[in-house]
Specification:
The complex is a heterodimer of chains A (810) and B (307). Chain A is α+β, with helices and mostly antiparallel strands. Chain A has 27 helices and 16 strands. Chain B has nine helices and ten strands. In chain B, helix 2 (101-111) crosses helix 3 (116-129). The complex binds adenosine-5'-triphosphate (ATP) and magnesium ion.
Chain lengths: 810, 307
């Protein structure tokens, strides 16, 4: 029900008003707007697009963590202080008992054993539960308050009070929503919904307050951090790593030994995949060794320092605890930097030499067999070309893929040929089946498939329900100023604006028309010259005319593809499978068509004349069909793209190494953090667990958090388990179900955020992109740097707080 | 005595070591009230496990007090900035074994943000002073215990501190080393620095301390000027040269008339060792708290050398 509000908040202001009308909300626009903002800032599960959205989510997560940490620390403090309030412990016990009884009642009621009266639309059992919870809360708060008073922690007491205001504000908003919201069927939101929503918003606000307090304390602490001391600590950590652990030497030795034997066990399945295999393996080796080094260095340093009591001489000097942590991170990262540079340099030289010599060998072999065996020569040419292509940094423009099946029905996916591990789906040969890549500002495939069907049936398409994506072709990159296509495109755009009513464009249009006439005349002249030269067989003149023509026209653009073929038994072995490609400009209707034999495992490409782009405004449809009957072409969205540009492989390789470095940074801060409060074996295991969690389980954890949004959280699952309801069935809304859902809605936002503690190491790793010959974009690098910092900073700061409140000599 | 001249002050300083569950395990220090004044050598005495090291760790903020508080330079011990004026030699030489003497001192010097040139000259001076010139490039893992002690001491005064806390500075040192350290401590005091040292080598403490505190099982048992503590007030000692026998007999008769028992005419001093043993014996016999009066009158000038 509250999702209605989420949907509202997601929309832009004018849309909000419209949607509010649609679902029958009687609410002034400003209030709707305001609630939208409250949602955006207050609800932990809800965010907006772009950098701002990510930042907000990050703030909410960090806020919730600092809240949990703050309350946890206070509770620990109260336990240590042995706070015992006899007057209130009775209430707490009653509360606990009441809670159990309430659960019992509700279960009994839900199974129809008893019927409880209801208070203001909420069953008595639920009310009892609420009251019990409040009782326990009162006891907890009183205990914390007494503990804080005894410790004379004025700042904490202040924060404690402010947090209650934050919670009250959240509840207020919850009820605001409650009192206004009317869902489509006309059912009012329940009281429980209001509370649960209020608490969610309140918790986020509490998170913000504790974050603010934290920031305040940190600013005081930051002022004491000195680079000289931090570097001195870093120097010590590095010396320790080198002299006590011998880590860099071991790592370097292993690297060199593995490298020496690389060509023995690295046998590419196809010669063309050599560079991909080598880049992938070498980066993996580098990242693996560095990871191992970090895992064994970072969590060990502080615990040994404390255990061997060497830390006494450090903390009795004017060293801030933050310097102890950051210094170590700086020290290890210095080491990592040197090792990454060294490994990277060696790998790069090795790689270039190996691949280049292979390319040379392939080319010369192709030349030597060209006369006798042109087929083999062509194959070898392909190989050399593939090898070269992979040693670059291609910047792709990707489209959004939808399908039509063999009967021409729009589909999200192609035909499943029953290959389990294949992420590609197929189009069937010689049928209307095809894959359609859409470029431009495109709707989500779900929406598109629905609307394609609508259009097919002659109905009007409906507005999108999913976010739209920007997949526009950068037309200006492809159309060079001073060429016919460029002028055509400009003319098209200006005329379009003129048609829409913009005035004062006449002189520019006139100028463009003049330019176009000149260029067309030149083009006609050159075409004639070319024809004449071809007729007379003067190859020098042909070349000259072609070069001159290339001046007048923009270069054709490349569409690159790599499809797989699924052969049915009927196919004849050795005969190529043909694909048909059609590039359509949906604005002007300009088309380019071609049929080509599919090269399996290799990249196919088509050079498309730039005239297709004229007037497209970045919109383009590319359709691919399989021509050969009874054969299937396997394709996925990333299998076809328009090549926007080609960057330097070296810098791309460096960016890949930056990824390795960032992984090491996150892992180092986790390791050092673990070392602040755990003994070294436990800290070591913790770091390993984080790493494995981030590498392997991240996707799984995400899935869990994501699924919980739909299939219910842990409490609902528990209920289903007990009641033998399967995972998909709709539960009848008994109180128990509602309670379970309420608990879930309280717990899940926090739980699903907790998943974020595990850093997504896999996404920091861009080595596959590099190995595949795709460019790691600058924004990707920046995004990854920010993400790494988003982990490294909070972990190091958490470590600081632990260390500050720890007796290092106890 | 002005506030500025009180370098260390503890009020009701109490430390209870707890186990993992927060249950009290050892009461290591009980309500310690102390003041250490500028320019004095203050000795913390006590048998093993009496709480000397605990006191020093509390002063440095390595431990947090269970109750009470400690102030150094009138600032709370958690303030790390005050450490710029403090030097500390831990009970054992907890140093980085993988560094050599020069690197060790350089590292600690950098923690004080001492400029490179200044650092170099101080390092040379200190290494010379502790007599480790021959071993300055050897890693500390190869050092003998006494050598580690020496480099530890050098480390403690690398920042030219106003207050030096030395936990058993002479442990592990040979007699010559001990004498050297004693000279060094006196030298530091003459430079106007304040020194707090702990130990149970009483002869050494007696030689150099201006004031001492005796701890026993975490409780303060005695506090005052060494000179006064060791003066035995109920004994008068007379030493005379070339006194005729008759005069001696006369004196004897005078003493006998006063029911005296002549030993010698003087105020002899006992050794610190005797005092120490007596206090430990007494407090073992009569356990429990006892009011300890600081026997120093604050206005008194600082005595330069005992004996
Ligand atoms: N980390 C600790 N955990 C628990 N108890 C401790 C700890 N450190 C010291 N103690 C206890 O506190 C008491 C005082 O110890 P402390 O080290 O201060 O004595 P000390 O006077 O320095 O002794 P010594 O002359 O042997 O160095 C002892 O009973 C000791 O067992
Ligand atoms: Mg000791």
């Amino acid at each position: 029900m509250l999702d209605t509000f989420l949907l509202l908040a997601q929309a832009d202001a004018p849309q909000q008003a419209q949607q509010a009308q649609q679902i029958g909300l009687d609410m002034p626009a400003w209030l709707l707007n305001f609630i939208g903002w409250v949602y955006l800032f207050g609800d932990p599960a809800y965010t907006t697009k772009g950098i701002f959205g990510s930042l907000l989510t990050w703030l909410k997560i960090i806020g919730l963590f600092s809240l949990v940490a703050w309350i946890g620390a206070r509770i620990l403090g109260a336990i240590k202080d042995r706070i015992n309030l006899p007057a209130l412990s009775g209430i707490a016990a009653a509360g606990l008992l009441g809670g159990i009884v309430s659960v019992l009642f509700q279960v009994l009621q839900s199974t129809g054993r008893i019927a409880l009266p209801s208070v203001a639309g909420v069953s008595a059992g639920a009310v009892l539960g609420l009251v019990s919870m409040l009782a326990v809360l009162v006891w907890l708060e009183a205990t914390l308050w007494v503990s804080m008073s005894r410790r004379k922690a004025q700042g904490d007491k202040f924060l404690f009070v402010v947090m209650h205001f934050a919670l009250a504000l959240g509840l207020f908003f919850g009820f605001l929503v409650y009192s206004y919201a009317v869902v489509p069927e006309g059912i009012k939101l329940t009281f429980m919904d209001a509370i649960s929503q209020g608490v969610r918003i309140g918790l986020t606000f509490m998170g913000y307050t504790s974050l603010l307090m934290l920031a305040f304390r940190l600013v005081m602490e930051f002022s004491g951090v000195n680079p000289i001391r931090t570097l001195a600590i870093g120097w010590l950590a590095r010396k320790e790593a080198m002299r006590r652990m011998w880590a860099p030497y071991v790592v370097l030795a292993v690297f060199l030994v593995v490298l020496a034997f690389t060509h023995w066990f690295l046998q590419p399945p196809r010669p063309a995949e050599m560079s991909r295999l080598f880049v992938g393996t070498l980066t993996l080796l580098c990242s693996l060794l560095i990871t191992l080094m970090i895992i064994f260095l970072s969590p060990l340093s502080l615990p040994t320092d404390i255990q061997q009591q060497t830390i006494y001489t450090i903390v009795s000097k004017p060293v801030s605890r933050l310097e102890l942590i950051w210094g170590r991170i700086v020290g290890y990262m210095g080491l990592v930097t040197v090792i990454v540079a060294l490994f990277g340099g060696i790998s790069y030289i090795y790689l270039i030499r190996q691949v280049n010599s292979t390319i040379r060998a392939t080319v010369s072999e192709a030349d030597s067999v060209r006369a006798d065996n042109p087929l083999r020569a062509a194959q070898l040419d392909d190989q050399a070309e593939q090898l070269t292509a992979r040693m670059s940094a291609r910047v792709p423009v990707k489209g959004s893929l939808v399908f039509r099946d063999s009967r021409g029905v729009p589909q999200i996916k192609g035909i499943d040929v029953g290959q389990e591990l294949e992420y590609r789906t197929h189009v069937e040969g010689a049928t209307p089946s095809k894959g359609i890549w859409r470029f431009g500002v495109v709707s989500h495939p779900f929406d598109e498939v629905r609307n394609m069907a609508a259009r097919d049936a002659g109905r009007t398409p409906t507005p999108p329900a999913y976010p739209i994506q920007d997949r526009r072709v950068p037309v200006d990159n492809f159309l060079r100023p001073g060429t016919i296509e460029y002028v055509d495109n400009q003319l098209f755009l200006l005329k379009g604006r003129q048609a829409q009513g913009t005035t004062g464009l006449e002189s520019r249009i006139e100028a463009l028309n003049t330019e176009k006439r000149t260029l067309s005349a030149k083009d006609a002249e050159l075409q004639l010259a070319l024809k004449n030269a071809q007729a007379s067989g003067d190859s020098a003149a042909v070349d000259k005319a072609e070069a001159a023509l290339a001046e007048v026209h923009s270069d054709p653009f490349r569409v690159e593809m790599s499809f797989t073929i699924y052969r049915t038994t009927k196919g004849r072995i050795g005969e190529p499978v043909f694909a048909a490609i059609k590039v359509i400009n949906p604005v002007t209707g300009e088309q380019y068509e071609n049929t080509f034999p599919v090269r399996e495992y290799y990249t196919d490409y088509q050079l498309v004349p730039p005239s297709v782009l004229v007037g497209s405004d970045g919109f383009l449809n590319i359709e691919v069909q399989c021509v050969s009957s009874t054969q299937y072409l396997g394709m996925a969205e990333s299998d076809l793209f328009i090549l926007a540009s080609n960057g330097s492989f070296f810098w791309n390789f460096v960016r890949g190494l930056v990824g390795v470095w960032l992984q090491a940074l996150v892992l180092t801060s986790i390791g050092v953090f673990a070392g602040t409060f755990l003994s070294w074996p436990v800290a070591l295991l913790t770091t390993i667990a984080f790493f494995i969690g981030g590498q392997v389980a991240y996707g799984y954890l995400q899935e869990l958090a994501f699924q919980a949004q739909f299939g219910g959280g842990p409490f609902e699952s528990l209920y289903r388990l007990i009641s033998h309801d399967n995972q998909m069935s709709d539960l009848t809304p008994t109180v128990a179900v509602v309670t379970a859902k309420t608990f879930d809605s309280l717990v899940m936002p926090v739980m699903s955020r907790l998943v974020y503690v595990v850093p997504n190491f896999a996404s920091l790793d861009v080595s596959n992109t590099v190995a595949d010959g795709f460019a790691v974009t600058g924004s990707q690098v920046i995004g990854n740097v920010l993400m790494a910092l988003a982990y490294a900073l909070p972990f190091s700061i958490a470590g600081f707080f632990v260390l500050k409140n720890r007796e290092v000599a106890a | 005595m002005s506030q500025r001249d009180i370098i260390i002050e503890t009020k009701n300083l109490t430390k209870v070591y707890r186990d993992f569950w927060g249950r009290p395990k050892v009461q290591a220090l009980k309500a310690l009230d102390l003041q250490v004044h500028r320019g004095e050598i203050f000795g913390l005495l006590g048998p093993n496990g009496s709480g000397k090291t605990t006191t020093i760790k509390l002063l440095l903020g390595l431990l947090f007090p269970t109750e009470g508080e400690a102030l150094i330079f009138n600032e709370p011990t958690t303030n790390v900035k005050k450490n710029e004026r403090i030097g500390y030699l831990p009970e054992e030489s907890y140093l980085y074994k993988f560094l050599n003497a020069e690197e060790t001192l350089d590292f600690y010097g950098r923690l004080f943000k001492i400029k490179a040139s200044e650092r170099r000259s101080r390092i040379n001076k200190l290494i010379d002073m502790v007599g480790l010139n021959h071993a300055r490039h050897r890693q500390l893992r190869e050092y003998s215990k006494g050598m580690q002690r020496r480099i530890g001491l050098a480390q403690a005064i690398i920042n030219d501190p106003e207050l030096v806390l030395l936990d058993e500075p002479t442990s592990g040192l040979d007699p010559i080393g001990t004498a050297e350290i004693k000279d060094l401590i006196l030298e530091l005091r003459n430079q106007g620095k304040t020194i707090v040292l702990s130990g149970h080598l009483l002869a050494d403490m007696q030689d150099i301390c201006d004031r001492i505190a005796i701890l026993h099982r975490g409780e303060l048992r005695e506090l005052g000027r060494v000179q006064e503590l060791l003066t035995v007030q109920d004994i008068t000692q007379i030493k005379v040269r070339d006194l005729p026998e008759s005069a001696v007999a006369e004196i004897r008769s005078v003493i006998e008339r006063h029911q005296g028992n002549l030993v010698a005419v003087d105020h002899p001093t006992t050794t610190l060792e005797e005092l120490f043993l007596r206090i430990v014996r007494e407090s073992d016999q009569f356990p429990g708290r006892r009011k300890v009066v600081d026997r120093q009158t604050p206005s008194e000038p600082v005595a330069s050398s005992p004996n």
